[in-house]
From TrEMBL:
It catalyses: carboxy-S-adenosyl-L-methionine + 5-hydroxyuridine(34) in tRNA = 5-carboxymethoxyuridine(34) in tRNA + S-adenosyl-L-homocysteine + H(+). Transmembrane segments: none annotated. This is tRNA U34 carboxymethyltransferase. It is an enzyme of class 2 (transferase). SUPFAM superfamilies: S-adenosyl-L-methionine-dependent methyltransferases.
Amino acid sequence: MIDFGNFYQIIAKNHLAPWLETLPAQLAHWQRQNMDHRFHQWLRCIEHLPNLTPEHVDLLHSVTAKNRIPLSEGEQKRIIHLLMSLSPWRKGPFSLYDIHLDAEWRSDWKWQRLIPFISSLANKTVLDVGCNSGYHLWRMIGAGAKLAVGIDPMPLFLCQFEAIRKLLGNDQRAHFIPLGIEDMPKLAAFDTVFSMGVLYHRRSPLDHLYQLKEQLKVNGELILETLVIDGAENQVLMPSERYAQMRNVYFIPSIPTMKIWLAKCGFHNIKIVDVSVTSLEEQRKTDWMTSDSLADFLNPIDNTKTIEGYPAPMRAVFTAVK
């Protein structure tokens, strides 16, 4: 079982306290629903990881933990085996005691593209919706956030996060809550809310934008990263079956359409701060994620198109204010 007691104690003292009216019962239900054989195996991996206190932690430039005296080869192999048992690792990379955990996505590149353009996270309480392994939660702490909360209902991602937290010395500034945003009350308590790589997986993108808005304080900032297409106002791609082999892609807007959606949901000061085509260097197979990746999803003759014939993945980062 994962113990959320420390998180309960932390939020009891701040603007997130109303969440305690529903959260403990929700998490107890989630744990009962997910106590299968695989989850028990993943929990054992976390338990068997050594309790290490790193002498050096860098969360500003990377997610790195190390000591002056390197671990023995046997200790490194043991940690690698346990972390490999939590594969596939989609988001990273992590550098842990000279072990390079090279995930499918170079999530550090996305962070470098957006961090110069967002409001300072210093002393802020932030929410990352669809946080995956929690890589960006640690970068948010490195950027000065006092509390970073990630939500994602996937059991494997929770276990990946808890494994990294343990190897970082049990840092309590970042927390992973295994729920979806639709399970959250309207807290209006976060200074900054991130939604990166989520919108196009939602059947109702406007409902998702309203849910994000409901978590923000007045004048709080939304950072939204999503797939987009080239096009004019009111143009949206709705894939018929799959997009880049993903079944659950519903709406991919043009950039002007995305700005209209944000304005319609009541956001203002809407800015587009980055547009980039996803490269084969940013998303690819690694030893830590060996199944199909972007190269397998693109047309082998024309990499500007997906295997289904749609425009290849292009992503944009928007900022907006409640």
